[in-house]
């Protein structure tokens, strides 16, 4: 993948995932499939065959090559049936079966300084440094939505202290959307998309995707100021 | 005193056994998912998460 001519690691937000939860008599699966344009409709049909729903389909980036779309999915039922549906869908794509191979190269950035500014710990993996902050309190179908099921804000860094690229999500209640947009724009952060990922979560959550290039400290401060717009009680 | 200690130990053992059974039940379900998806999951916050590689050009 490239963004504005720069090679971008998969871990920067180009990886598909699914999260599975045992609800007792049935299983729930949520996920995000990263697709080429031509893969979208074959995947929708394969998912529909096993009654797995599409809850959103949209961009997360602008200017990426090749053009990538993100399909958010939700299924409930027997785990094996859901897995077969997702397997059939993935078989319509170029997504490899195995997990991302760990990349030993760490970004040449001051991770400790980033953690200090943002106030949350992060981890280096796959050539990026990433901080993920869950948003407690979300529920769907009576089940708690955890950070591992996609209810989180995050920021990922690659590059150097002087010239880093960041990308990430902000998970926001409706009344937080514009305060977050303004906080990010004050720092010159490019907003790439604002939309839903789910259909029946409570409270309603909107996701903002962003990207920018600059000094690590400035980018970290932008994320910190955007986080400050979220309800403190809902931060983890 | 001994009776109270005995009850406490019994309670701890029961909780441990219940937790193990619950884990086994969860793992059992997701072993089938792992087999079908051809990928190993990672337990995170009570959910089994399967990260896949990103898009690859054919």
Structure characterization notes:
The complex is a heterodimer of chains A (236) and B (58). Chain A is α+β, with helices and mostly antiparallel strands. Chain A is 22% helix and 37% strand. The longest helix of chain A is centred in the middle third of the chain and has 13 residues, at 79-91. The radius of gyration of chain A is 18 Å and the shape is globular. The relative contact order of chain A is 0.16. By secondary structure, chain B is of the alpha+beta class. Chain B has one domain (2-49). Chain B is 62% helix and 19% strand. Chain B is elongated and about 50 Å long. The model of chain B is unreliable at 15-27 and 54-58 (pLDDT under 50). At the A-B interface, strand 3, strand 4 and helix 2 of A face helix 1 and strand 2 of B.
Name the features.
heterodimer, A: 236 residues, alpha+beta, Alpha-Beta Plaits, 2 domains, six-stranded antiparallel β-sheet, four-stranded antiparallel β-sheet, 5 helices, 16 strands, globular, B: 58 residues, two-stranded antiparallel sheet, 1 helix, 62% helix, 19% strand, disordered C terminus
Mean pLDDT of chain B: 63
Domain module tally of chain A: 2
Contiguous low-pLDDT stretches of chain A (5 residues minimum) are: none
| Relative strand content of chain B | 15-25%
CA-atom Rg of chain B in angstroms: 19 Å
The count of helical stretches of chain A stands at 5
Structural class of chain A: alpha+beta
Instruction: Summarize the biggest pleated sheet of chain B.
Output: 2 strands, antiparallel
The beta-strand count of chain B equals: 2
Mind sketching the topology for me?
The complex is a heterodimer of chains A (236) and B (58).
Chain A: E1 2-3, E2 6-7, E3 15-22, E4 27-36, H1 40-49, E5 53-58, E6 64-65, E7 68-77, H2 79-91, H3 111-118, E8 123-125, E9 128-134, E10 139-140, E11 143-144, E12 152-159, E13 164-172, H4 177-186, E14 190-195, E15 201-202, E16 206-214, H5 216-227
Antiparallel strand pairs in A: 1-2, 1-6, 3-4, 4-7, 5-7, 8-9, 9-12, 10-11, 10-15, 12-13, 13-16, 14-16
Helix pairs in contact in A: 1-2, 3-5, 4-5
Chain B: H1 2-37, E1 42-44, E2 47-54
Antiparallel strand pairs in B: 1-2
């Amino acid at each position: 993948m490239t963004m504005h001519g720069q090679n971008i690691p998969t871990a920067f937000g180009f990886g598909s995932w699914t999260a599975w939860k045992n609800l007792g008599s049935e299983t729930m699966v949520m996920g995000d499939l990263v697709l080429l344009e031509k893969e979208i409709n074959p995947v929708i049909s394969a998912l529909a065959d096993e009654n797995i729903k599409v809850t959103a389909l949209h961009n997360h980036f602008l200017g990426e090559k090749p053009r990538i779309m993100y399909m958010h999915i939700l299924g409930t039922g027997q785990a094996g049936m859901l897995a077969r549906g997702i397997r059939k869908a993935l078989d319509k794509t170029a997504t490899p079966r195995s997990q991302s191979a760990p990349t030993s190269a760490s970004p040449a950035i001051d991770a400790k300084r980033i953690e200090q500014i943002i106030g949350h710990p992060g981890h280096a993996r796959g050539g990026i440094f990433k901080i993920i902050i869950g948003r407690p309190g979300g529920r769907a179908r009576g089940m708690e939505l955890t950070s591992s099921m996609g209810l989180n804000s995050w920021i990922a860094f690659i590059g150097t202290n002087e010239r880093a690229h960041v990308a990430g999500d902000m998970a926001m209640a409706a009344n937080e959307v514009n305060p977050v947009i303004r906080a990010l724009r004050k720092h010159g952060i490019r907003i790439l998309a604002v939309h839903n990922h789910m259909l029946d979560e409570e409270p309603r959550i909107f996701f903002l995707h962003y990207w920018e290039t600059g000094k690590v400290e400035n980018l970290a401060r932008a994320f910190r100021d955007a986080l400050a717009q979220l309800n403190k009680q809902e931060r983890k | 005193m001994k009776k109270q200690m005995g009850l406490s130990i019994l309670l701890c053992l029961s909780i441990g056994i219940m937790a193990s059974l619950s884990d086994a039940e969860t793992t059992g379900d997701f072993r089938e998912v792992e087999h079908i998806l051809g990928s190993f999951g990672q337990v995170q916050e009570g959910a089994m998460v399967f990260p896949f590689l990103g898009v690859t050009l054919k």
